[in-house]
Each structure stands twice: as structure tokens, then as C-alpha cells.
From TrEMBL:
In the C-terminal section; belongs to the 3-hydroxyacyl-CoA dehydrogenase family. It catalyses: (3S)-hydroxyhexanoyl-CoA = (2E)-hexenoyl-CoA + H2O; (3E)-hexenoyl-CoA = (2E)-hexenoyl-CoA; a (3E)-enoyl-CoA = a 4-saturated (2E)-enoyl-CoA; a 4-saturated-(3S)-3-hydroxyacyl-CoA = a (3E)-enoyl-CoA + H2O. This is Peroxisomal bifunctional enzyme. It comes from Erithacus rubecula. CDD domains: crotonase-like.
Length: 164
């Protein structure tokens, strides 16, 4: 939603400007990272506010380490947010993917550029063109996530952020 995008923008800018902040951790709520954009907003004749692609670029360009703590699902725009982060930790039961192709849409927040850079063209093309969701264990093998945990993902992400 626009409210989430605005909160991400405000939080990132505030954290980047605050010398006492050493790293940023992005997580979801209620055991889910993000199921992506609300497609109902796509049908609006005119959308106001910031778009997802500039937010993902803002995450990527943050001067401080940004860690995604992925629980549940990171799908569509949610995965694109995670791709903008410098590090990604996923719960062992998490699933990731770009399913928008199944309804005739391509990922629109530069996921089609970031994913191949991270996991290689063949694996990225498979994910982008099929819309399949991959489990955390496969994401780790592909290099999509840096670590998988069976414990509290947020605590693990904070530990990683403190380490880097």
C-alpha cells in the first residue's frame, strides 16, 4: 500500500541520516514478510505517491547495511523489496517468488534486473517466467538468501546486522 511505501521511505531516510543507527532491518508482520502489492491499486486511473521501484532503489543505496528478515512469504513486490536489501535471512518455512506473471504482469520494481544479478540468468528466468514459489532451502542454494534459520528470523537478522 502507499502507506507502507511511505513508511519505508521515511524510515530509511531517517535511519540513514541518524549517526547512531548502524544498520536497518526490514521485516513483515504476523509471520509474513510481504505478499506483494495490492493489485486493486493497479486499476486506479491515477495513482499518487511514491512507487515501489524508487523505494527498492532507496533500500539498495542506503549507506548502512539493510537486512531483510523473511518469514512466511516474500512474493512479487515483497521479494523485490528483499532483493534491494544488502542481506537476506529467511525462516526455513519461508517461500519466495514473483507470481505476478500468472496474471499477465511482469515484476515492475526492477526485480527482473536484480534477481539475475543475484542468482544467475537461468534460475532467474525460471522464477520470472513461471511465477513459481521457491522454498527457503532452494533460495539458499541459489544464493537468493544469505542464511536460513529455524529460530526467530528477526533476532537472527539483528545478529547479522550487528555482525556486518
Amino acid at each position: 500500500s502507499l502507506a507502507v511505501l511511505q513508511a519505508l521511505e521515511d524510515g530509511l531516510k531517517k535511519a540513514d541520516a541518524d549517526p547512531s543507527v548502524k544498520a536497518v532491518m526490514i521485516c513483515g508482520e504476523n509471520g509474513k514478510f510481504s505478499a506483494g502489492a495490492d493489485i486493486r491499486g493497479f486499476s486506479s486511473p491515477k495513482r499518487h505517491g511514491i512507487g515501489l521501484a524508487p523505494i527498492v532503489s532507496l533500500i539498495e543505496s542506503c549507506g548502512k547495511p539493510v537486512v531483510a528478515a523473511i518469514e512466511g512469504v516474500a512474493l512479487g513486490g515483497g521479494l523485490e523489496v528483499a532483493l534491494g536489501c544488502h542481506y537476506r535471512i529467511a525462516h526455513v518455512k519461508a517461500r519466495m517468488g514473483l507470481p505476478e506473471v500468472t496474471i499477465g504482469l511482469l515484476p515492475g520494481a526492477e526485480g527482473t534486473q536484480r534477481l539475475p544479478r543475484l542468482i544467475g540468468v537461468p534460475a532467474a528466468l525460471d522464477m520470472i517466467t513461471t511465477g513459481k514459489h521457491i522454498p527457503a532451502t532452494e533460495a539458499l542454494k541459489l544464493g537468493l538468501v544469505d542464511e536460513i534459520v529455524e529460530e526467530n528470523t528477526i533476532e537472527a537478522a539483528i545478529r547479522l546486522a550487528n555482525k556486518v
